[in-house]
């Protein structure tokens, strides 16, 4: 039985992926800041599947929390086959001269440093075993910047570069490194970006059909279950009505 570690597992991509893998018989380590949210979705699983899920309250921005949670893993969960670096966010959408420093710090600390902290903690075990798969959640914003996305764009361009560099470092140890770059997905993403303004958040998806979290979970599943000789190294996934970061057909 294989084991996946999912960060940012309280909602969105992380929740959908954790549930999908548990429902398909994988052991799941779920980390997030909102433990109660994870306990809620775990309770939706059949009783025999709930035992496949190990939850920890972890803020990936804090290296000491990452290391402590990893050290405290029960032996049944200690051999991690897949790491999904999903924890991330966009905070604010302002031109650079009006950006909030706190928003910048949150994005840099979560999207880049958090990903690095978790990878640095988990990857040595994969190297020792000579196998593993690391999947980083990037963004179309890491391929094509857009106005007022400045620092978020920069963090996701950073994830793009890190993914390539990690693949170069780890391929010789039998470890796959991949990236998923979603376009518009209807999760809590926009509500977080606009600091809880639901009207602004819903307007992002006006008159179009965005992806949903399960679409990303399905892609993660397909990616990590590909044949051993196949690595879907870099996947851009968009809703059909989205052509680029800034071009969306809103026909209703």
What would your notes on this structure say?
The chain has a 7-stranded parallel sheet, sandwiched between helices. It has 252 residues and is an alpha/beta fold. Helix 1 links the parallel strand 1 and strand 2 (27-32). The termini are far apart. The longest helix is centred in the middle third of the chain and has 29 residues, at 101-129. The chain has 9 helices and 7 strands. It is 42% helix and 15% strand. The mean pLDDT is 97. It has one domain: Rossmann fold (3-Layer(aba) Sandwich).
Q: Proportion of β residues?
A: 15-25%
Number of helices: 9
- End-to-end distance, in Å? 44 Å
Low-confidence blocks of residues:
none
> What is the CATH architecture term?
3-Layer(aba) Sandwich
List the helices and strands and how they pair.
Blueprint: E1 3-7, H1 12-23, E2 27-32, H2 35-42, H3 47-50, E3 53-57, H4 63-71, E4 82-85, H5 101-129, E5 132-137, H6 150-170, E6 175-182, H7 189-193, H8 198-203, H9 213-224, E7 234-237
Parallel strand pairs: 1-2, 1-4, 2-3, 4-5, 5-6, 6-7
Brief summary:
This protein is an alpha/beta fold and 252 residues long. Helix content is 42%, strand content 15%. The protein is built from 9 helices and 7 strands.
């Amino acid at each position: 039985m294989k084991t996946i570690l999912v960060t940012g597992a309280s909602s969105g991509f992380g929740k959908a992926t954790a549930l999908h893998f548990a429902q398909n018989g994988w052991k799941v380590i779920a980390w997030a800041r909102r433990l109660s949210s994870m306990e809620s979705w775990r309770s939706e699983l059949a009783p025999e599947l709930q035992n496949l899920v190990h939850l920890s309250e972890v803020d990936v921005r804090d290296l000491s929390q990452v290391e402590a949670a990893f050290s405290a893993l029960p032996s049944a969960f200690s051999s991690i086959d897949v790491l999904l670096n999903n924890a991330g966010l966009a905070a604010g959408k302002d031109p650079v001269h009006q950006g909030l420093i706190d928003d910048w710090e949150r994005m840099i600390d979560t999207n880049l440093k958090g990903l690095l902290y978790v990878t640095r903690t988990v990857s040595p075990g994969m190297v020792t075993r000579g196998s593993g798969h690391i999947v980083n959640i990037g963004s179309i914003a890491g391929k094509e910047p857009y106005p007022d996305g400045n620092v978020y764009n920069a963090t996701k361009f950073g994830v793009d570069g890190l993914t390539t560099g990690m693949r170069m470092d780890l391929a010789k140890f039998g470890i796959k490194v991949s990236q998923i770059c979603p376009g518009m997905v209807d999760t809590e993403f926009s509500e977080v970006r606009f600091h809880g303004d639901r009207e602004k958040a819903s307007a992002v998806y006006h008159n179009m059909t965005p992806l949903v979290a399960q679409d990303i979970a399905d892609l993660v599943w397909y990616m990590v279950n590909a044949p051993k000789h196949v690595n879907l190294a870099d996947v851009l996934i968009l809703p059909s009505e989205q052509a680029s970061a800034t071009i969306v057909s809103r026909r209703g």
